[in-house]
Specification:
about 10% helix; 4 helices; about 55% strand; 15-stranded antiparallel beta sheet; mainly beta
Length: about 270
C-alpha cells in the first residue's frame, strides 16, 4: 500500500479535511447558507499575488522529519489566450525515507489572473514504483474538464461546477479572500476527476511561533470535504494562514486514523 504522506498534507489544501460526524452533519444542514468562494469579494489589501515566491516547509510524520514541501509562484503564462499565474508544489522525501519509500511529486496549476479559477492542472507523481503523469484542461465557460493521462494515453471528459478550482489554485485563491475569525465559505474543487464541495471554517485569530521566523499573527483554518453530499472520512486537518502581506500558509497539522500525524511548518521564505 502506498504511503500517502503528501496526500495527507494536501488535506489542508482543501481535499481530504473532514470532521466528526456530528459536526459535519450540522454543517451539511447549513451548506446552502454558506457563502460560495467563487462569489466572494476580493480583498482590496491583496490585488495580486507576488510575481515570484518560493516557500519551503519541513514535513514531519509522527515527529520524524520525512521531507520537504516547496510551493512556488513562477510568474505568469498565457493559457488558451488567458493570462495565468503559474503555481507549483513539489514534495520530496529526505534521505531517510527515500531508502524505504522514495517520493518525488510535482503539481503545477495555472490560475486565471483575472477570474482567479483554474485553467489547467498538471500532475507528475513518483511514489515508490507508482507513477502518474497527467494534465487536466478546464473549460470554465462550458463547465467541462478534459483529463489526459500522459503515460497510458487514456482520456476522460467530465462536468465541472462553475468557477471550480483544483486543490493548488484553491490554496492560492484563499489568500485573496477578506476573512476574519468566525467566517466560513465553501469551494468547488476538482481532484482526481471528482468534484468536491469543501467547507472552510475560520476558527480563530491566534499567534503562532515559527522558530527562527519568530511569532506570527495567523488565522486558524478548518476544512471539511464532501463528495456527492457525503462526508470524506480520511482524517482531519487544520492550517495556519498569515494575516500579513500576501497571507501565505505558515503551517499545517493533518491527522488520520491508524497512527498518522503529519505536520508541515514554514522553514524558509523567498519572495521577489
Amino acid at each position: 500500500m502506498r504511503i500517502k504522506i503528501f496526500s495527507l498534507f494536501l488535506a489542508l489544501l482543501f481535499i481530504n479535511g473532514c470532521a466528526t460526524r456530528g459536526t459535519l452533519q450540522k454543517q451539511l444542514l447549513l451548506l446552502d447558507e454558506i457563502p460560495d468562494a467563487a462569489e466572494s469579494v476580493i480583498s482590496s489589501n491583496l490585488n495580486s499575488l507576488p510575481d515570484y515566491e518560493k516557500l519551503t516547509y519541513e514535513i514531519k510524520w509522527i515527529g520524524i522529519p520525512v521531507g520537504t514541501l516547496t510551493t512556488s509562484i513562477k510568474g505568469t503564462e498565457k493559457i488558451n489566450g488567458r493570462e495565468a499565474y503559474v503555481l507549483e508544489a513539489v514534495f520530496k522525501t529526505n534521505s531517510f525515507l527515500s531508502k524505504i519509500y522514495p517520493v518525488n511529486d510535482r503539481y503545477v496549476s495555472y490560475m486565471d489572473k483575472e477570474q482567479l479559477y483554474t485553467l489547467r492542472h498538471e500532475v507528475y507523481r513518483r511514489e515508490g514504483r507508482y507513477k502518474k503523469d497527467a494534465i487536466t484542461e478546464f473549460d470554465q465557460a462550458n463547465r467541462k474538464a478534459y483529463f489526459h493521462n500522459l503515460l497510458d494515453k487514456s482520456e476522460k471528459v467530465f462536468d465541472i461546477p462553475s468557477g471550480v478550482h483544483d486543490f493548488l489554485s484553491a490554496h492560492y485563491y484563499f489568500r485573496f479572500l477578506p476573512l476574519k475569525a468566525g467566517d466560513k465559505l465553501r469551494y468547488a474543487i476538482s481532484n482526481n476527476e471528482k468534484n468536491y464541495q469543501v467547507v472552510i471554517l475560520v476558527k480563530s485569530h491566534i499567534s503562532l511561533k515559527l522558530g527562527a521566523l519568530g511569532k506570527k499573527d495567523v488565522l486558524l483554518i478548518q476544512p471539511y470535504a464532501l463528495l456527492k453530499g457525503e462526508e470524506v472520512k480520511e482524517g482531519s486537518a487544520r492550517g495556519y494562514y498569515s494575516c500579513e502581506g500576501s497571507r501565505p500558509l505558515l503551517g499545517a497539522i493533518v491527522t488520520a486514523p491508524i497512527f498518522t500525524k503529519v505536520t508541515a511548518f514554514l522553514s524558509k521564505a523567498e519572495i521577489i
